[in-house]
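Are you able to produce any protein sequence you like plus the matching backbone structure tokens because I've never seen that pairing?
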Amino acid sequence: MLNISASISTNNKKMRGRLSTWLAKHKLAHRPLGFDYQGVETLQIKSRDWPSVAVAPYAYGSNYPRSQCAYDVAPGGALVSVYHLTRIQDDLDQPEELRIKVFVPREDPKIPSVFWIWKSADFQERESYDMSGITYENHPHLKRILMPDTWIGWPLRKDYIVPNSHELQDSLQVGTIVKNYCSNYFLILHQ
């Protein structure tokens, strides 16, 4: 008879990389998602577990957060914040990479900020907030970074509908700026 739990355990071990094994050994909550085509280990972390787990990759040596982004899984579905972490050392030929995905519900998308661990997460978390509406708790500067402060909604959500008033308002502002620039340039040329 096939032992299903042994089969699942074996598959789970195949999906575990070095960090996942280390996290499991220290009883830190996570779910291994396997490796991508380049061999980058991917982990899923719950939002509530992110502060305690985020310190582990830093202590493990992931000293450079290469990028952070967010995406919408499906209209009405979960939102995901993705951290691409890199371990850079002088004696390594190839930097070791790690990807961590934090899934949050669309109704209350809150994730603890890792600004306090990696300062370079500042603008990246702000952009994810601005475009996807994920709130990064305890972030010291969480405000819009790309869109005007008066913008309504989250442009990269799959269920986002562009309000006509913003398109008209923005196009009028851009038109005025271009007109003023061209007028000033023309005056400078003909002085």
